[in-house]
Write a structure and sequence with these properties.
Blueprint lengths: L2 H10 L2 H8 L3 H12 L12 H15 L3
Amino acid sequence: MDLHEIVQQLVSEDARRINKLTKDCGSCRKFIHRLRRKPWLEIGWDDIPGELLERFSSQWHQRLFLY
C-alpha cells in the first residue's frame, strides 16, 4: 500500500471508524482533519503521525484476518 492509497482510505473512512482510529491522539485528529479539508495537500511519510500509521495498519490487519 502506498501513501496515496493510505490517504484515500483515511479520507473515505466513516466518522465512527476515524474516531476509533484517532482516539486519544491529538496529532492524529489534526492530521485527519487537515486531510479531509484539503485532500490535495502534498504530504510525505514524515507528515503522518507514527501513532496513526500504527493504528491504521493494525486496524487493516484485523480486517484482513476476519475473512
